[in-house]
Design goal:
The structure holds two protein chains of two kinds.
Chain A (H helix, E strand, L loop, with lengths): L6 H24 L3 H26 L2 H29 L11 H19 L16 H20 L3 H23 L4 H29 L13
Helix pairs in contact in A: 1-2, 1-5, 2-3, 2-6, 3-7, 4-5, 5-6, 6-7
Chain B lengths: L1 H18 L3 H29 L2 E3 L4 E3 L1 H31 L8 H27 L3 H19 L5 H32 L13 H6 L6 H19 L7 H8 L2 H30 L2 H23 L4 H22 L2 H32 L4 H4 L3 H4 L1 H14 L6 H15 L3 H26 L12 H19 L3 H15 L1
Antiparallel strand pairs in B: 1-2
Classes of the chains: A mainly alpha, B mainly alpha.
Chain lengths: 228, 495
């Protein structure tokens, strides 16, 4: 059989790219600079689009190509551009200043990856015939890990903009879960989700901008007026 | 056809208001649109009562009795609030509360923002109840958050920004969990016949094959959806955005959030509960719901008792009510489902009445702190005071008001199904909230006051008068078609 039609080859490709996505995520946890973080996020989104494209190719599911292209345009190009312009405009200190220090954060991310694999365990069914339908079972574990690490990043960061980035990573995890589990949800749902993500980024961007203006800082931990 | 029109009208109102100039046009467009929406909601309810579930566009839109009830409730809240908003925002404009740094130009922009985002919010609230596809329903619930973020920052001060940030971030995280749950639900059913493409997430499709859904994925999916839509419903411990958002948003928007958006979140939970309980049996989802529901009721008690601000107190009361509804869902069975639907109906009326009256008090006394008002609301604002009093008594579950009946049914259902601890805690927490709310509100309403007596303002007082009358009437007599709708909605839940 030709390599490019062998589902096992596809499976390996997807697993490889999913692993790279995870590495990028942990790199984001370890990275100090906001701009680099945004670029890592862009790279992660590119990889996700590539995974979607691979799955579409080996499953002969043309509608996933649409999802892949939409992801590439929205999350790979548009959102990072918007965020970078926002960073330039609000002239913030470029460092992320996490609450926990870097080595500890990486250890925690490693632990969360382990949890991801444990949670994904019941979904792995080796007794089912290998083939197109079992493509990328590793990807689910990676997706759950991305989701959990996204959570951790959100709690671990003080600045409004970096929390937005964490939310986006969390959503990347979701996207990976959606395409690896079910080869894409129905297209209209996917488009709805993507549209929501785009609007959410705009809304959050405007909020970040106003927070910067009103509080003279983006430090969310200074917002302490509303209590009880 | 009515279903499509129901969605098209608010959307058109949003588009028109976004480009329209002049306050009068904006007000007219909004009130007309919501009046039409309300009539259409009545038509949908009538059609569902006559012919059973209706659907449109190959089952893309689907309305059974449960959707019809939620649509009817939400459309009526929208209508009442749109009438009230006219008076409320005119008053705001007069006192200069809307002028930011840009002067009166800022006020015009804010008015346009309010009158175009509110129809968008209502559109998404209706779409939640009409969408058959669980993914589309998720997107609609996310849209409710996005449409209302800028309503929370409406006054543009530092505290409202803080509230909006919390609202958007907590809501965003919650909804991403709900989306994960939705994806897993799709996975649970993707091997079943007829589940290719769009139909694979159609609720009407899934519920017929609920027994064959993959159990492992449904188990995980329900937890994620419960946390996700529970965040939207303001269940503890994900409730922290609620008091902030409700106290910072303009009052008519807060009323829509507290009454209508809560209904939508509960609606989403109910849809998934039905799927999960038919797949795994009622025990598993029921226990999770009971846990979160009772925790929310419990956490509301201390916060209500020490509360200084009446709009925040109303928010905690809403958390308590959301907890009650989720508890009722968790108890399971026919009686509890009926009590839940009844409670949803009554709560919608009582809570919107309370928020609108609170808005009048706030604008008259220019504060929302109990400490500064000291007392005398009944003397200064007789109608509002009476309405506030009625709403409070209803919400805390005092007989003979309507919510007493539904809460009583819930407790009966709890003891009837041998949930003794649940029933006991329900009564205990109910008493705690009762004490807190009555204590604060009676202090605020009674007593003398130096403020001059307020005048009758039709835009702001007529919605309150109507809601007050409705609240009293439904306490004693529920119109037969509405009762039938509630009954059938409960049948959707309990099967």
């Amino acid at each position: 059989m030709h390599t490019l039609q062998d589902p096992q080859f596809g499976d390996k490709m997807v697993t490889l790219m999913a692993a790279m996505v995870l590495v990028l995520q942990i790199a984001m946890v370890a990275q100090r600079w906001i701009v680099t973080n945004i670029r890592l996020f862009a790279a992660q989104s590119f990889l996700l689009a590539a995974i979607a494209g691979t799955i579409a190719y080996f499953n002969h599911a043309p509608h996933i190509y649409a999802a892949a292209v939409a992801t590439l345009l929205a999350k790979g190009i548009l959102v990072p551009l918007v965020l970078e312009r926002l960073v330039a405009r609000i002239e913030i200190r470029q460092e992320i200043e996490p609450i926990l220090n870097m080595p500890l954060s990486i250890v925690i991310s490693g632990g969360l990856t382990l949890v991801g694999y444990v949670l994904a365990e019941p979904f792995y069914r080796p007794e089912e015939a290998p083939g197109a339908s079992t493509l990328g079972h590793n990807a689910l574990a990676v997706a759950i890990s991305l989701f959990l690490i996204g959570f951790f990043m959100m709690i671990n960061r003080r600045k409004a903009l970096t929390q937005v980035l964490a939310l986006l990573c969390l959503e990347n995890g979701l996207f990976l879960a959606a395409i690896s589990l079910t080869y894409g949800m129905p297209l209209i749902v996917e488009l709805g989700v993507l549209f929501d993500v785009l609007v959410a980024v705009m809304v959050l961007g405007i909020l970040v901008y106003r927070i910067r203006e009103s509080f003279e800082s983006m430090d969310v931990s200074r917002m302490r007026r509303l209590r009880g | 056809m009515t279903l499509a029109l129901l969605l098209a009208i608010p959307l058109a109102a949003c588009a028109v208001s976004a480009v329209a100039r002049g306050r009068a046009v904006l007000e007219a467009v909004n009130v007309t649109a919501f009046a039409l929406t309300f009539l259409l909601a009545l038509a949908v309810a009538a059609e569902v009562l006559r012919n059973g579930a209706i659907s449109l566009w190959n089952g893309f839109l689907y309305a059974d009795a449960l959707s019809a009830l939620v649509i009817l409730l939400n459309a009526s809240v929208a209508l009442v609030c749109s009438v009230y908003a006219v008076g409320y925002l005119r008053e705001d404009e007069r006192t200069g509360a809307l002028d930011g740094e840009e002067g009166s130009h800022g006020a015009a922009a804010k008015l346009r923002m309010y009158y175009s985002l509110t129809p968008l919010l209502v559109f998404s609230l209706l779409l939640v109840a009409l969408a058959n596809n669980l993914g589309v329903m998720w997107a609609a619930i996310e849209l409710t958050t996005l449409a209302s973020v800028f309503l929370v920052t409406f006054y543009g001060n530092v505290t409202s920004l803080e509230a909006a940030w919390k609202y958007a971030m907590i809501g965003g995280v919650g909804l991403s969990m709900a989306l994960f749950g939705t994806v897993l639900t799709y996975y649970a059913g993707h091997k079943l016949p007829g589940s290719d493409g769009l139909a694979g997430l159609n609720w009407s499709n899934l519920v017929q094959q609920a027994g064959q859904l993959d159990k492992t994925s449904m188990r995980m999916a329900f937890i994620l959806v419960l946390l996700g839509y529970g965040t939207k419903a303001g269940l503890a411990p994900m409730h922290t955005w609620k008091p902030d958002a409700y106290s910072e948003a303009p009052v008519p928007s807060a009323a829509i959030l507290a009454a209508a958006m809560l209904n939508c979140a509960i609606y989403g939970l109910v849809r998934f509960y039905v799927l999960t309980s038919r797949c795994l049996g009622p025990e598993y989802p029921g226990n999770l719901l009971l846990l979160l529901g009772l925790f929310s009721m419990g956490i509301a008690v201390p916060f209500v008792l020490v509360q200084k601000n009446f709009r925040r107190m109303l928010a905690y009361s809403t958390i308590d009510q959301a907890g009650m509804m989720v508890t009722a869902l968790g108890i399971g069975g026919k009686l509890a489902a009926f009590a839940l639907m009844l409670h949803m109906t009554f709560h919608t009326v009582a809570k919107s009445l309370l928020f609108l009256s609170a808005g009048n008090v706030y604008q008259c006394f220019k504060t929302d702190l109990f400490q500064k008002i000291k007392g005398g609301v009944l003397r200064v604002l007789p109608l509002t005071g009476v309405a506030f009093c009625l709403g409070t008594m209803a919400v805390v579950g005092m007989p003979p008001f309507s919510l007493f009946q539904s809460e009583f049914l819930m407790i009966r259902a709890a003891f009837g199904t041998a949930h003794f601890l649940v029933g006991a805690l329900f009564i205990l927490f109910g008493l705690g909230v009762f004490t807190g709310v009555t204590l604060h509100v009676s202090g605020m309403l009674l007593g003398p006051s130096e403020e001059p007596r307020g005048s009758w303002q039709p835009w702001r007082h007529s919605p309150i008068a109507v809601l007050g009358v409705v609240l009293i009437v439904i306490g004693f007599w529920l119109p037969a078609p509405l009762l039938e709708l509630v009954r059938r909605a409960a049948a959707v839940v309990s099967g």
